[in-house]
Amino acid sequence: MIKDASAYFVDGCGRCDHFATDLCKARKWSEPLQLLREILLDSGLNEEVKWGQPTYTLKGKNVAMLFAFKDTCGITFFKGMLLRDDGKLLVPAG
Asked: 22 Cβ partners below 8 Å, 6+ apart?
């Protein structure tokens, strides 16, 4: 598994046999994931690797994590229910 978040955007998480291949979902979604990463870092969050995924923290608390699936990628918020969403842009997990 990766230890440096930058490696995720180049080779993937390292948790499966697709690591560092064109079959890797993180590599497939590298561009949009990089844009999401910039937004999270510009907001003042710290970047760490947890569970093989780029995870963003504030004062040592998990705030958000990037994910890549076969057909999509995005951000998951650890306490998304606490976020104000007047524009109804957020989609609950599951």
From this structure: 28
Domain ranges in the chain are 5-82
Q: Average pLDDT, stretch 37-54?
A: 96
Distances (CA, A) of 88 to 21, 32, 61, 85: 36, 21, 25, 5
Predicted pLDDT at 1: 87
Q: Read off the tokens for 28.
A: 């497939």
| Environment class of 86 (CB within 10 Å of its CB; exposed 0-12, middle 13-18, buried 19+) | exposed
Q: Which pTM was predicted?
A: 0.88
Closest CA to 64 of 29, 22, 93: 93
What is residue 92's predicted lDDT score, i.e. its pLDDT? 81
